[in-house]
Structures are given as structure tokens and as C-alpha cells.
Amino acid sequence: MTTALGIALTLFVLALIVFVIDLLVPSGGILLAITGILCFVSVVFAFRHSPTSGMWMLLATLGLIPLMLFLLIYIWPKTPFGRRMIVKPDLAKEFVWSDAADVDPKSLLGAIGLAETEFLPRGSVRINNRSFEAISDVGLIEAGQEVKVTRLDVGRLVVVPTKKPSENQRTMSDGSGLDQPITDLGLDSLE
User: Fold this and answer.
1) CA-closest candidate to residue 166, choices 128, 100, 116, 124
2) Which of 22, 51, 126, 137 is most buried, with most CB under 10 Å away?
3) Residues whose CB is less than 8 angstroms from the CB of residue 171 and which lie 6 or more positions away in sequence, other chains included
4) What is the mean pLDDT of the chain?
């Protein structure tokens, strides 16, 4: 029966070695699955030796899970392979203008334009007969609605709708009688 305990300990150590190799070699999770299988089989062999050995091996395996998660989340991205797999974006330190080199983007702050497309939240806005890419700061903006440039974000204008609708934009209640005062509708009193 001591061979069962020896096999259990060997499989457990082998599981640890396979896990370390998984940190260094891209395997798509295959080596991680093999690590799990080896840990499970080591627990089974430890229980074949004795219930006490099985419980200790189960506790060791379960205690190793948080350590493995810590290594995968915090240490693996710092390994040479992890640095190649996880690309950190370079954050822009200043506004980078992407639409037109001959227009100063700061001159467009506060400008009123017309939404050429729906903003969901990105769209196109026409300002001074020029089209610019922009982002809505408030969510959905309908095509044809007047918008105002409020700020500059990385490479784009940020717009919000103006309060007054443009002359070519119709409201949903246009022509339905809902825009008229109640006295003009000729309705009888409910009393």
C-alpha cells in the first residue's frame, strides 16, 4: 500500500511541474487540464493508501488552487511569453487629431453641426460643410439633429444634441394634433 502513496506524491509533484511548464509554454489550456487531471489522480491514489493520506492530499490540492490562480493572474503576465501575449495599449497623453490636418480641432470646440448619421455612440457630424468623426456624450443622437462639440477626446470630437431641433427634423407628434393646445382641439370636458 505504500506504493499508492508514492504514486500519489509523484503525481502531485508532476502536476506542479506541468503547471510551471504551462506558465512558460503556450498550450491553450491543455497543460492546465493535464495539471488538474494529475491532481485528481494523485488524490485518488492517496485515498487508496488511507483516508487520512487522501484528506491531506485533497487539502494540499485545494490549497494549491489559490496559489495557482495567483500565479496565473499576477505572475504570468510578467513572464516573457505573458508580455508577448498581453499587449498594453499606449495611452495617449494628448489629443491626436485624426480627421483633418488643416483644421485646428480646438477651433471646433463649441461649434454647432448637423449629425449626418445616427450616433450609437459613434457617428459622423457636418460642421462648416466638412464631415468629422465624433462620439456622442449622451448616447443615441438621431441623424439630422443639431449637435454641439463639447470637448475633444483621443482623436475624436465629443458632441451632445442641442436643445432646439433642426428645421429638417420632425417630431413624432408632428401633424397628429398632439402639438396643439387642448382648447383648440374642441374636446368636451370630462366633468
Assistant:
1) 116
2) 22
3) 165, 179
4) 80
Residue type, 115: A
Cis peptide before 121 (omega within 30 of 0): yes
Q: How far apart are CA 150 and CA 99, in angstroms?
A: 17
Rounded Cα–Cα distance for residues 13 and 64 (Å): 12
Per-residue burial over 63-86, b = 16 or more CB atoms within 10 Å of its CB, e = otherwise: ebeeebeeeeeeebeeeeeeeeee
Angle between helices 51-70 and 30-49 (to 10 degrees): 160
Rounded CA-CA distance 173/76 in Å is 59
Q: What is residue 139's three-state secondary structure?
A: coil
Spatial distance between the Cα atoms of 18 and 53, rounded to a whole number of angstroms: 23
- How many Cα atoms within 13 Å fall on the side-chain side of residue 18? 18
Q: Do residues 177 and 164 make contact, with C-beta atoms less than 8 angstroms apart?
A: no
pLDDT in tens, 82-131: 777 776 655 555 555 555 557 777 788 888 999 998 888 788 889 888 88
Name residues whose C-beta falls within 8 Å of residue 50's C-beta, 6 or more positions apart in sequence: 1, 5
Which of 66, 45, 67 minimizes the C-alpha distance to 56?
Answer: 45
CA distance 11 to 103: 67
Instruction: Please give the radius of gyration of the chain, using alpha carbons only, rounded to the nearest integer.
Output: 33
